[in-house]
Amino acid sequence: MMRYAIGDALPPFVIESVSPEAMKDWAVFLADPNPIHLNVEVVKAKGLGDRVINQGPINVAYMMNMLMAAFPGGRIESMDSRFLDNVFGGDRVVASGTITAVEDGRVACEFTLAADGRGPVNSGTATIAI
Amino acid sequence: MTDTDTLPPAPDVAGTSLDGTRVFTISAEENAALCRSTGVEPAADGSAHPIYYYIATQVAMGKTVAGVCDTCAFDVEDGPMMGSSGVRFDAPLKVGESYKVTGEILSLVRKRSRKLGVMDVLTYRLRLHTLDGAKVLETDNIWVLPRKELA
């Protein structure tokens, strides 16, 4: 069994380029065809930027992937995520975190998702049963 | 007197039911596609990606996002924004399992924001159950509804 300690850094999970094609798939998964995720002209018209905007839950999934890779065989018991900024198509994003508590077969951590050049776009905390 | 005393109150929507009527089934095919779209392979043990906590509850709740906004007297075209999302799992989500949703709006609070002007902060809670009624998870989502007309 792996040993964990407060302050341990969790291995980062990297998406080299956020995919606009994946956003089209997620519009189906979420049954939500909001055009800011699908049509860059709509994003421009709304003054939100010049690239399509990733659906928020995809960003949460990236952070979950980081947690699941960091704790093989573990199970996410609880997780809270805050949405700080948009992630855009083509962004390179990195999920990373730190262990904040280890107790009774559980590990608590805090983490962020950061976009290159813009800093944290999501942050959160989670408890993992290990 | 607070600075929100001069604003009309937010609609009284706390307690509005979001119980769903449809069943949400996590298919192996969709789970695999979803996992790969986020840069990982699907689990070999039959568990679904945990982000289905959000997808299943959102898709199978009793109102669409637009419908929830409408309940709050907010036009979805005005751009609701996700503020935060929290989940507490009682059990893992499974591929091939079917689920149903119960839930309700917890609050709608009008505030002033330096960045957004006047906004309503919507909090709603959804629970995912197996078809025999066992609760699998509970999630609280917070959305920010910018009230441009009151800014």
The main sheet of chain B orders its strands as 1-3-4-5-2
Q: CATH homologous superfamily of chain A - what is it?
A: Hotdog Thioesterase
The largest sheet of chain B is: 5 strands, antiparallel
Helix-strand string of chain A? EHHHEEEE
CATH fold category name of chain A = Thiol Ester Dehydrase, Chain A
Count structural domains of chain A. Answer: 1
Note the quaternary state here.
heterodimer
CATH topology of chain B: Thiol Ester Dehydrase, Chain A
Task: Give the class of chain A from helix and strand content and strand pairing.
Answer: alpha+beta
Please give the radius of gyration of chain A in angstroms: 16 Å
Note poorly predicted spans of chain A: none
Q: Which percent band covers the strand fraction of chain B?
A: 35-45%
Report what the structure shows.
The complex is a heterodimer of chains A (130) and B (151). Chain A is an alpha+beta fold. Chain A has helices at 20-29, 40-45, 56-70; strands spanning 9-15, 75-83, 93-103, 106-115, 119-129. In chain A, strands 1-3-4-5-2 form a five-stranded antiparallel beta sheet, with helices on one face. In chain A, β4 and β5 form a beta hairpin. Chain A starts with 8 loop residues before the first strand and ends with a strand. Chain B has one domain: Hotdog Thioesterase (Thiol Ester Dehydrase, Chain A), CATH 3.10.129. β2 (75-83) of chain A pairs antiparallel with β2 of chain B, so a sheet runs across the interface.
Highlighted features:
A: 130 residues; alpha+beta; Thiol Ester Dehydrase, Chain A; 5-stranded antiparallel β-sheet; B: 151 residues; elongated
